What we know:
The protein has helices at residues 14-25, 37-50, 66-79, 106-121, 123-127, 160-182, 207-216, 223-226, 228-235, 262-276, and strands at 5-9, 29-34, 57-60, 85-88, 133-137, 188-193, 246-248, 251-253. It is α/β, with parallel strands linked by helices. The chain has an 8-stranded mixed sheet with strand order 3-2-1-4-5-6-7-8, sandwiched between helices.
Amino acid sequence: MNGKVVVITGGTSGIGEVAALELAKMGARIVLIARDASRADATLVRLRNAAPNLVHSAFLADLSRLAEMKRVAAQIADQEPRIDVLVNNAGAIFAARQLTEDALERTFALNHMSYFVLTLALRERLLAAKAARIVNTASAAHHGAAFDLDDVRSTKGLGGMKAYRCSKLCNILFTRELARRLRGTGVTANCLHPGFVATRFGDQSGGMLSRLVWVAKLFAISPDEGAQTIVYLASSPEAAKITGQYFHKCRPAIPSAAAQDDRSARELWRRSADLAGMNA
Length: 280
Ligand code: NAD
């Protein structure tokens, strides 16, 4: 990873932070996209301790807002002529349904639209790296989810766990369509399930959901273990040519039938581009 530039969202906590630190120790320069300035500063200190010879950086953005996604991507594109790895990893689950200022259901906006918008907005910088890799953190929670493509804005009241499962189904469908569109460019796109990991995940969800996740986390794996598949997909020579796959424990895994539906993947892409107002 020597000399490589890694842009990572959700890199100030949980599996994203562990992955950022491991990739920095391998020689990568890390560009964090973070929401919270004090957390970003704390992670930058840890990154500098782990890899003191590199100038790691952080950009602040609330990735549930379309304008912020576009603004931060433009700032990074200005600073970085070439991006070798983009890790789309920021995500959350919310007990109560909420709409963002863009009139999008908040889980869908953060967990799916931020992956879509950042990837598209940084596409030229990824292509400039020739053999760049895109790594999208999905989840086994997508199993059993059915996404209503005619209602991407979720006007029918989706929220809580249902919205989370759908957003993670979107991560896999997005990865499939992205890999198809990138074929022949040398840029790969894969996604992963990290396992059930004891991170901050769920702490801010609110209501019963936070308490349920807290209890479940007593049986979860550590962030060190959970980050391994991100690190593998971002750096392993073995994964260099693999694209369009869903991984678990550093091995390809089979996602649900809904997550393998290429028609849905194309349609999700088209509708996401419309919502973002981006040519894709
Ligand atoms: P975490 O809560 O520790 O980390 C989530 C990260 O996302 C944090 O850095 C947070 O600041 C960032 N984030 C949240 N909202 C944001 C916003 N509006 N703008 C910018 N950044 C924002 O949890 P984690 O477990 O490390 O989660 C990372 C990813 O792993 C998520 O996509 C999650 O869905 C996925 N995942 C987690 C588990 C698990 O068991 N923890 C299981 C499967 C998938």
